[in-house]
Amino acid sequence: EKYDGKISSFRDFVISVENIFALQPSRYSSDEFKTRFIGTLLSGNALSWFRNIVLYKAHMLDNYAEFMHEFKELFDDPNAQRHARGALKRLKQGKGSVKPYATNFRSIACETGYNDTALMDAFEFGLNEEIKDFMQDIYIILILDKKAIAKDIHN
Hints:
mainly alpha
């Protein structure tokens, strides 16, 4: 699929291309093959940028790392982490089941930079009230069971 320079689809495009390189390493063994292959998949603003690379910075075609660095500088979302955090805050389970909520949560969570504790809090925050109440009931039961077991051990 062609990449036209939209920030929102940059990371998906890059991971798709990198998968192709990983699956066919002998075919894309040189930096120039990789950069020129990417060029064939560009359109719009991204293609205009690539054309200027070919015309004025041709040395970058032989340096995949430098090429990707500049590509990312221009087209990757510089606020991806902040946007992911905002999306996570807006994500709610609603009336649906927990499974689709959890799937959506995981797809966003990896880009937030949050630690496990913050992710657990964010996950619980997005759950519907019925599930939260159920979790609270389970927690109370576990605490009471723990106290009863401790009492039995001491007697």
